[in-house]
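ok posting inputs for the uridine-5'-diphosphate-xylopyranose job
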Amino acid sequence: MRITIIGIGYVGLATAVALAYLGHNVVGVEKDPYKLKLLREGKSPIHEPGIEELLEQSKEKLDFTDDIAGAVADADLILIAVGTPPKMNGEADIHYVEEAVRQAAMGMVSGSTYVIVIKSTVPIGTGRRVMHVVRKTLAKRGVEANVHVASNPEFLREGMALRDTLYPDRIIVGAETPKAVEALLRLYRPILEQTFIPPPFLPRPEGYSLPPLVTTDPTSAELIKYAANAFLALKISFINEIAGLCEKVGADVKEVARGIGLDPRIGPHFLQAGLGWGGSCLPKDTAALLAVAAEYGYTMPIVEAARVVNTRQRHLIVEKLQGELKILRGRIIGILGLAFKPETDDVRESPALDLVRILTERGAHVKVHDPIAIPKAKVALGELPVDYADDPYTLAEGCDALILATEWETYRHLNLAVISRRMNTPVLVDGRNFFNAEQVRRAGFIYLGVGR
Ligand code: UDX
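and the output
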């Protein structure tokens, strides 16, 4: 099929390379000249495991442009994957979606059929709004094209974007016309039937079973995305709330999580206590869900509480440190990890950055390290007086405490004894319960985990 993908961010790029790998002819539209230049050179503007390899392997089937109208004329499917940044009230702003769709309609030709697929996370009812924009634009141009709109939310995780795209748990399609469903069925058939040969570096997960295609109405599809992310967020906040109680009563939250996670009704995933959730989705989507509910005069106290617990979690970690050091003003604190989670350089809503801000506000001097996220962190932290260390050993030099904020696998191999000797006082707050407490203590540290 001929696919045009508008917006080459995380979702757009992962989808583009995966679909090209499956044999579709893909044109990616990216307005940012710098990103476009990189993409045309076969380089990825984002850090995502496997993406450059797949870009290379799929280059015959993959093209990039900044001209939406030109890329649309003979496309079978138009995928919208532009950003939907939060407005002041938390609602997702669909300004870029509308503009992308309007420009796409400028390229449509009379007599053709187009299926517009919304992959961006959008407020309830956006499908209808998109159809309205297309119809209005086509009418103005005097073009009579046959247009269908479908909602096809994605559930890919950063750092695992390609794996989640090629081996999804489910594919959700919300559409009102059989034509739209058929088009998406054709698009995803190689994934639904797993007929493709896996890339050597991305083998099919062991025990993976074929993903179900869930077809539903567009509104339900839009809500599925929000509800899924909100549920994940509250699962993490729940275990963080339990972690706080574990500390009071002397229990170990890892044991509690294991014990409850073995119940299949609860499940073992997303029960890792720590600094809480960040990133481009969970914070934004829970806020957007509350904004949608508010529009209808409805309250969602559980989702609200998940957000409150998540914010509190960062402060609790700082208080834990203060409990140990007593005074934070004038202390030197090192933060290990800045990305909102490992395997990505994304620092959006990263708990680590909040730690930097809170500690700086309390008069501490903060040093930071991250294997890849420093350039993005520098932009996000702006003028804040922070020292950026080249490696964890330099970071530790003269520190009164370290906080592990992102569980990068490379940190597992650190020589902790060397690190503790370089510090002023060897305190380690393990904000992700990542280290083995005993080993850390043996390396000379005072070890403080979360809920343990
Ligand atoms: C999320 C959803 O998982 C994905 O389905 C959706 O499409 C986009 O949003 P992502 O933002 O990439 O994906 O990250 P995710 O792996 O969900 O982690 C989110 C945050 O929760 C991270 O900050 C992570 O550190 C934190 N987390 C995750 C925990 O604190 N504990 C856990 O047990 C799991």
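notes: The mean pLDDT is 97. The radius of gyration is 24 Å.
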